[in-house]
Amino acid sequence: MDSRRVALVTGAGRGIGRGIALALGAHGWAVVVNYRGNADAADETVQSITRAGGRAQAVQADLAAAADRSRLVDATLEVFGRVDLLVNNAGMAPRVRRDILETTEASYDEVMAVNLKGPFFLTQRVAQAMIALLEAGSVEAPKIVNIGSVSAYASSLNRAEYCISKAGMGMLTALFADRLAEYGINVYEVRPGIIDTDMTSAVKEKYNRLIADGLTPIARWGQPNDVARAVLAIAEGYLPFSTGEVINVDGGFHLRRL
Ligand SMILES: NC(=O)c1ccc[n+]([C@@H]2O[C@H](COP(=O)([O-])OP(=O)(O)OC[C@H]3O[C@@H](n4cnc5c(N)ncnc54)[C@H](OP(=O)(O)O)[C@@H]3O)[C@@H](O)[C@H]2O)c1
Predict the structure, then answer these.
(1) In terms of CB atoms within 10 Å, which end of the chain has fewer, N or C?
(2) Where are the beta strands (DSSP E) in the chain?
(3) 254 in any annotated domain
(4) Torsion of CA 11, 16, 21, 23, to 10 degrees
């Protein structure tokens, strides 16, 4: 069996997830690159890692589907034999931004399934696998990182379902941190601010303006690698006495100012 530690990163074909996958790959982790529909992007992530001498494998799975989540974990264990790190990164914005008075049940259900229900049950499944691997002596100090958002507390009236899903991610982190501490499995939330990815491309002008007008103390867009470095610090074990912790990667957006 390969002695590399193994990371399962959801939504790693593009954006923040790709940044996380590349950073882990460059630091000797074998990476499972999960994606939903964009196989070319996932292949590109895999190629970038393998070209640099790392190991990676793309696995298609829709996190909203229970059978897909199961298949994703099974594939990870089949290909690499272990899982040392789960990064719940995949997420979606509502397909159509609608005022909270017009939010549809279909959009609510879809966003909650991908952003909250999927990560909850994937975490449950991976945690069970990690406990079994710990008992077999196959892994040491596995970890779970959830990618939340400043939307957990910042109101955006035209994507209520997204905000609610990210607020739920905060509790998901606290609950699993509490439950898994006895096994030595630490759980963290990394909470990005405004990051330059496909997800924010539709609102680029708006955010350019807000940043120029002083929205964030650090006056620039965040990049996927800003988030990746925080995840890497956790993955490499630099926060051993912290669990349930929220790491803000937001240029100081969360600070209240007078
Ligand atoms: N960008 C920001 O400003 C920002 C800020 C705070 C938090 N976040 C959070 O950071 C995470 C990544 O966001 P991003 O900006 O990198 O998004 P992105 O560029 O839109 O990429 C989303 C990724 O998630 C995957 N994905 C979406 N739905 C999925 C599903 N049902 N099953 C499996 N994979 C799925 C996509 O797969 P395909 O490529 O196959 O479509 C893609 O790889 C999300 O949780 C987001 O909420 C983003």
Answers:
(1) C
(2) 6-9, 30-35, 55-60, 85-88, 143-147, 186-192, 245-249
(3) no
(4) -170
Split into its structural domains, the chain has a count of 1
Q: What are phi and psi of 253, to 5 degrees?
A: -55, -35
Q: How far is the CA of 135 from the centre of ligand 1 (A)?
A: 33
- The 10 Å Cβ neighbour count of residue 192 is 24
Is 13 a pocket residue for ligand 1 (Cβ < 6 Å)? Answer: yes
Position 138 in a domain = yes
Is 256 contained in some domain?
no
| Closest C-alpha to ligand 1, atom 25 | 11
Q: 195 CB less than 6 Å from ligand 1?
A: yes
Given 35, 162, 183, 188, the catalytic residue: 162
CB 12 within 8 A of CB 72: no
> Amino acid letter at 2?
D
Q: What CATH number is attached to the domain comprising 63? A: 3.40.50.720
Give yes or no: 162 in active site: yes
pTM: 0.98
Tell me, what's the pLDDT at 3? 78
User: Is the shortest distance between the CB of 119 and ligand 1 below 6 Å?
Assistant: no
Q: What is the pLDDT of residues 202-256, one digit of tens each?
A: 999 999 999 999 999 999 999 999 999 999 999 999 999 999 999 999 999 999 9
Is 200 a pocket residue for ligand 1 (Cβ < 6 Å)? yes
Is there an atom of ligand 1 within 6 Å of 222 CB? no
- Specify whether the CB–CB gap between 123 and 180 falls below 8 A: no
CA of 136 to the centre of ligand 1 (A): 33
Tell how far the Cα of 10 is from the centroid of ligand 1, in angstroms.
8
Please check whether residue 81 lies inside any domain of the structure.
Answer: yes
For 236, the domain range is 6-249
